[in-house]
Amino acid sequence: MWLAALALATVEPHITLAGAMNHYKKRRALWHVAAAITLLVCSVLAVAAENKWTPRHEGRVTDLANVLSVSDRDRLTKMLARYEQETSHQIAVLLVPTVSDESIESFSLRVANVWRIGLRGLDNGILVAMAMKERKVRIEVGLGMERYITNATAQSIIGQVSAFVGQPSLGVRRTVLVR
Questions:
Q1: Distances (CA, A) of 24 to 4, 14, 57, 59
Q2: Distance between alpha carbon 14 and the CA centroid of its chain, in Å?
């Protein structure tokens, strides 16, 4: 920087060495500010690209697709509460109209991580996620529950209830009741 300032002061006689140094310091500071702004914008854009919609946890049964009747939702909620009292295992059911361009697997895993179903330290939660438009079901099992319900068992349960695609209320009940 000293060498560049000296060269500028030599070429431009009206500029002193101190003035040239000040000019380069300002220019360098401007580049640092521009670099910081660029990094900030890039990080905000990266976060925005990763920030996908996650539904709000409304309780044991979250029916954003509006496929369950009020009585079915209440009955299922009471059944899940009773099960939790008996076992301490937590089960949440989520029905969404669509997962859009996302796979049911990544959607349900993100929801399970955000909702944090299950007791801390035990990881004994289960999320049953259903995307109505895609006709997809996914069961996310916490690590503490895998000795009871393996991924293979979860897939088997999904296979058994897939016949109830046209009857969502019955399908949800059968998914949760199958052990």
A1: 8, 16, 55, 60
A2: 61
Strands 125-131 and 136-141: antiparallel
Predicted TM-score of the model (pTM): 0.66
Q: From first to last of the 179 residues of the chain, give the pLDDT tens digit.
A: 544 544 544 555 555 655 555 655 666 655 555 555 655 554 545 444 456 889 999 999 999 999 888 998 999 999 999 999 999 999 999 999 999 889 999 999 999 999 999 998 899 999 999 998 988 999 999 999 888 888 888 888 887 766 555 666 666 666 665 54
Tell which residue, 99, 107, 108, has the closest CA to residue 154.
108
What is the fold, at CATH topology level, of the domain defined by 61-177? Diaminopimelate Epimerase; Chain A, domain 1 (3.10.310)
Amino acid at 76: L
Helix segments in 51-167, DSSP class H:
70-87, 104-115, 151-161
Rounded CA gap, 19 and 24, in Å?
Answer: 9
